[in-house]
Amino acid sequence: MSAKESAMQTLPGPRINAINEPFWTACNRDELLIQQCEAQDCRKWVYFPRVCCPHCGHGELAWRPASGAGRIASYTRIHRPQHPAFFSQAPYYFIAVTLDEGPLMYSRLELPAGSPSPAIGQRVTVVFVEQSPGQKLPFFRPA
Questions:
Q1: Which of 27, 100, 110, 125 is 20 to 30 A off residue 65, Cα-Cα?
Q2: CATH 2.40.50 residue ranges in the chain?
């Protein structure tokens, strides 16, 4: 097998570290966990995983279950992926979702065959897909 063929069969996985590990572990349990600021005058939800609140600077963030529901804020249809491993999956939709909790999350839209194109404002819900061995990713589907 050539290096190109090997790259086409191996999908890249997330870079897991001490800061984001609770998020990825929860994904493997089919649960969407995001952080929430513990400051009494803030309490905002935070995504992507961080060490302090980007809204108020408070250093205490707690992991909490999120609804996994939201609305499409933006999307694009990928025809020519940048990584060879995704060539066989194109075309597919890459979306920005405003979660009901507030944060913006970028992901992929899973559409059943024959579905209409997505729409800005369309309701979506999280679904967990094992894209790389042993690690599920949070994708979305129409609600």
A1: 110
A2: 68-143
